[in-house]
Amino acid sequence: MGQPSPKRRRLSPADIDLTDDGPQPATRPKPPVDQPDTGQTKLAPLFRPPAPSQGAWFANLGSGKGCGHFVSRSPAPSTKIAAFDIDGTLIRPHGNSKYPKSDSDWEWISPHVVPKLRKLHADGFAIVLFTNQALTDTRLNWFKRKIPAVARALDVPLRVFAAFDHNEFRKPAPAMWLAFETKFNGGLSIGALKDHSDTDHKFALNCGLPFMTPEQFFLDKPAHAPVEFGGWDPRTHDHSSPLYSPCSPPLLPRRRSEFDDEPPPEVVIFVGPPGVGKTTFFKTHFAPKGYVHVNQDTLKTRQACLAAVRRALTASPPKSVVVDNTSPSASVRAEYVDLVRSLNVPGAGGAVPVPVPVRVRCVYFTAPLELAMHNSVYRALHEPEDASGSGRRREVLPLAAFLGYKSRLEVPRLDEGFDDLKHVHFKFSGSPDQLARWHQWLGDVYGYKPPAKGHKVVAAAAAAAAGGTKRGRK
Fold first, then answer.
1. Which segments show compositional bias classed as Basic residues (predicted)?
2. Long-range contacts of 90-97 (CB under 8 A, 24+ apart)
3. What is the value of pTM for the model shown?
4. Which of 53, 213, 418, 443 is the most exposed place for a label (fewest CB within 10 A)?
5. Three-state SS for 154?
6. 277-314, pLDDT tens digit by residue?
């Protein structure tokens, strides 16, 4: 494994929460102290017997369960990185078991693992392990007790990053790699990932790493033929379609001339899953025109949202409103339609203002559920501040938020009482660098499997589409 050029453009981790401020071990790992010369011949590190464990688990990265971080023997920064998954790549349960039965139920997957990794260390490589471990409390405790034993048997400096939840740290999302690269490796970024699964191959692609299977690396077997990726590929999304349809009438009412009256007030009901840009769409198109923003995340209850709509329409002068909620069911939307039809909204001018009809329109965001989940991870990684301006940090939304929307969704229709219905198509807005990050494999964090037709792409084509850098996937 030669040393590649370190000049590749790296993914920006500036917005990722990589804080490590929790309780720390009483003593951080220190380099081993040389033993006095006893006159005996010293063994090279490659042949040295296992040393007592000097590893420790440090405070989790991120919020909640976040990402576990284990360090053994004070690994030094290096421009050469050898990154590995753990289960099925370095170790496995004894016998033919699929899952371990205790913290001691493990063995090396091959007799070549230890000498190969010790040789990598002797050649100047930093050894880093990245693993997904969203486990029950019992199995998580087994895992956290097992890793020091693995480190002791391996007897080389190493770091372990373990995603303990379905969050932005979970592979294939690159947050664990970015945390290592920027916080613990001084921004150095050359490496190769060894594993065998689709998730880790995508992780390697996201991190810009060449990829090898355990069979290739440990057993010197030839590379596999190109394999297929399962799951939703963000590069297949069509950004060229019109932003909304139909294009007529226009998205916002407008006066034909300066002599026309102002358009009457209206209520616009958004329908769409979380994470597809509804609030951004409001800020871009409706906020500049003075529309009142009604959002249940802010107001907490639907009754509070209905009351906010009533206040806006009965104000003097009345104000137009956007209801920025998911509103998946026809019954929820009907509450707003019925409210508007029940009000006498005063018009402008005259001693006794004449009530004016209030239009009710629906804007349906058509993005598929997989895109919404993908966006949830992307935002937690690269757009950490909540779009509402509250200063709250974005987190990966729970899978239940998306599945709940899907289970209740009744696609909106004009005959629900709407005066107009528009379909909005998701179009990513950002710089080429931001689009490249958006094209990463991220939605797999949820482990969601669509009922049937899953899009697949060939790994070789995916690597070529990444722009010619050394990218692989696992």
1. 1-11
2. 90/117, 90/129, 90/150, 91/150
3. 0.77
4. 53
5. helix
6. 999 999 999 999 999 999 999 999 999 999 999 999 99
